[in-house]
Write a structure and sequence with these properties.
The complex is a heterodimer of chains A (about 290) and B (about 230).
Chain A lengths: L2 H32 L6 H19 L2 H27 L4 H23 L15 E3 L4 E3 H23 L1 H11 L1 H6 L4 H27 L5 H16 L4 H21 L1 H18 L10
Antiparallel strand pairs in A: 1-2
Helix pairs in contact in A: 1-5, 1-8, 1-9, 1-10, 2-3, 2-4, 2-8, 2-9, 3-8, 5-6, 9-10, 9-11, 10-11
Chain B lengths: L1 E10 L2 E11 L4 E5 L6 H9 L6 E6 L2 E2 L4 H7 L1 E4 L11 H9 L10 H7 L16 H14 L4 E5 L7 H16 L3 E5 L3 H7 L2 E6 L2 E7 H5 L2 H8 L2
Classes of the chains: A mainly alpha (about 290), B alpha/beta (about 230).
Bound molecules: adenosine-5'-triphosphate and magnesium ion.
The site of magnesium ion has 4 residues of chain B, from helix 1.
């Protein structure tokens, strides 16, 4: 295990963390703002991948797919919002979990009907194919792009949330919805907008992951577990929590798979249990 | 300015208000007083729209209040809750700016004017809301309400838990607002504070108004004191 090995693991972990971040940020904000448990978030990720693959085939452009898939997934999310989510907001977490868990299978079957049950790949664009020489190691260029994409989304969200008035409105509404309303903030509209951004990021994660992981009908469920763990560890509704949680889970899963394969499957759960016992609200919850 | 008629409200199945009536005249300070748990805060929450009006009516400037608090806020009802509800994750400046969005193009209240009004907030602008003392929180809560350029200020126990010196400062500031013509609906346990500010008083008992009159009337009415305020 030389330096190159560690650097590779570090890059793999960072890339996985970014993917987890793109998914968990949507999920955690929807949790935090709407008090809604949307397990279908993983299915939106899967849809992003499949739609992206088709969009790339139709347009012949990966970049077009990278834009179109999130838009399509947002539209699907908006339909879900008005047909189900808005109505289920006061139905309690158990009903939300049951309905949105059911939705996962509806979407999986729709994908089977539309695309078939085979793993589909997506080619990275020419400029991002191949590997980049980083001195000690050489690393797939596309994966570096994924790291950059995640970092860019993180930076944009951070600036919007912490520096703009919209961000202040979101933070205020997450912290105290009733008082935000009493100050004239249209919390309903704001939450819908944030929900849409969350869906768009799930779609973006899906299409962006497709060249690396290829699209399968199981991808939405398999990513859902670590994403939920990120949300719980990080603390509901908080950007910082999603960032920190993503890196913790991404690094633990990647490094344990590389050096302690026997423990890999349980380490994150041990961490989850520890956080739940010591800090049940997560490491950086939105509501102090 | 604000007229309640036969207001029935409460929490789910639990009814707290059983036909509350009173009128807050424009430009006046109206004190709503009564023992713990009689329904004063519930009344305020119903006025601003946090609790649904189950029966009766509430009119603000001649037309019925809206079901949604954000519409009422836009129409000029500003609320300072008992718990102050400062946004702890926002800076003092952000707390004020957020409220300022409601004001029109030439707002009467700007951050500069609020700081001028409550100088204690001046050095706190970049502090987080959760770093403030109780007195500073109260000042910010009132300042935040003012930033919306309200037509009526609804205050729930502004002196609760504050040191006498801070209470005096807040008293002076509310006096200043009153002489500027602000309409205020004030719920308060501190009787001398309330009577020092109020023009009219409604005494509440078990979800209804049991006594009404001017502040002077109440000062001279020992029976009402005894019966509804327990002093
Ligand atoms: N969230 C709630 N759910 C159910 N009942 C409540 C709730 N809040 C208050 N109550 C009940 O409603 C009644 C009136 O409460 P309210 O807060 O309006 O009283 P108050 O006059 O403001 O009293 P205080 O002087 O203590 O603030 C009380 O019996 C209280 O227990
Ligand atoms: Mg009260």
């Amino acid at each position: 295990m030389d330096a190159g090995f560690w650097i590779l693991q570090f890059l793999n972990a960072t890339q996985f963390s970014m993917l987890l971040f793109l998914l968990s940020i949507g999920l955690t904000v929807i949790f935090g703002l709407l008090h809604f448990v949307n397990l279908a978030h993983g299915a939106l990720y899967m849809l992003g991948a499949y739609i992206g693959i088709s969009a790339a085939a139709w347009t012949g452009s990966f970049w077009a797919a990278l834009v179109l898939a999130p838009i399509a997934v947002t539209l699907i999310g908006a339909v879900l919002y008005f047909t189900l989510i808005d109505r289920l907001r006061s139905a309690g977490p158990m009903n939300q979990v049951l309905v949105t868990f059911g939705l996962i299978f509806v979407f999986i079957d729709l994908v089977r009907i539309g695309w078939g049950d085979v793993a589909l790949g997506l080619n990275a664009p020419q400029v991002l194919s191949g590997a980049t020489d980083l001195g000690i190691v050489s690393y797939p260029t596309y994966r570096l792009f994924l790291i950059g994409l995640g970092a860019m989304v993180m930076a944009i969200l951070w600036i919007v949330l912490s520096k703009t008035q919209i961000g202040a409105m979101i933070r205020a509404s997450v912290e105290n919805e009733a008082m935000a309303k009493a100050l004239g903030i249209n919390v309903g509209e704001l939450f819908f907008a944030v929900f849409c951004v969350g869906c768009a990021l799930a779609g973006l994660a899906g299409v962006a992951a497709a060249p690396v992981l290829s699209a399968t009908t199981g991808m939405g469920i398999s990513i859902l577990i670590p994403t939920l763990i990120v949300v719980v560890i990080g603390g509901l509704g908080s950007l910082e929590g999603a960032i920190v949680g993503s890196f913790i889970v991404g690094f633990i899963e990647t490094f344990s798979a590389a050096i302690l394969p026997g423990l890999a499957a349980i380490l994150t759960y041990v961490l989850l249990a520890a956080v739940l016992v010591l800090r049940p609200r997560g490491l950086l919850p939105a509501r102090a | 300015m604000l007229e309640l008629k036969g207001v029935v409200s409460g929490y789910g199945e639990t009814r707290v208000l059983h036909g509350t009536d009173f009128v807050v005249a424009a430009g006046s300070v109206h004190a709503l007083l009564g023992r713990n748990g009689v329904g004063k805060s519930t009344t305020l929450k119903t006025i601003i729209g946090h609790l649904p009006l189950q029966d009766g009516s509430i009119a603000f400037q001649g037309s019925s209040i809206d079901r949604s608090p954000q519409v009422n806020a836009r129409r000029g009802i500003a609320y300072v809750p008992e718990t102050r509800d400062i946004f702890g994750s926002l800076s003092v400046q952000e707390n004020l700016e957020l409220a300022g969005r409601l004001a029109g193009v030439n707002p009467e209240w700007t951050i500069a004017r609020v700081i001028d009004f409550f100088p204690n907030l001046k050095d706190r602008l970049s502090n987080g809301g959760q770093e403030l003392s109780g007195g500073e929180q109260q000042m910010l809560a009132i300042g935040r309400a003012l930033m919306t350029d309200p037509k009526v200020l609804v205050l729930d126990e502004p002196t609760e838990g504050l040191a006498p010196i801070i209470i005096q400062q807040i008293f002076a500031k509310l006096k200043e607002l009153k002489s500027g013509g602000m309409t205020v609906l004030l719920v308060e346990q501190n009787l001398s504070f309330a009577l020092g500010l109020a023009d009219d008083v409604s005494l509440m008992s078990r979800g209804q108004i049991a006594w009404r009159g001017t502040a002077t009337d109440l000062r001279n009415d020992d029976v009402a004191h005894e019966k509804y305020l327990g002093v």
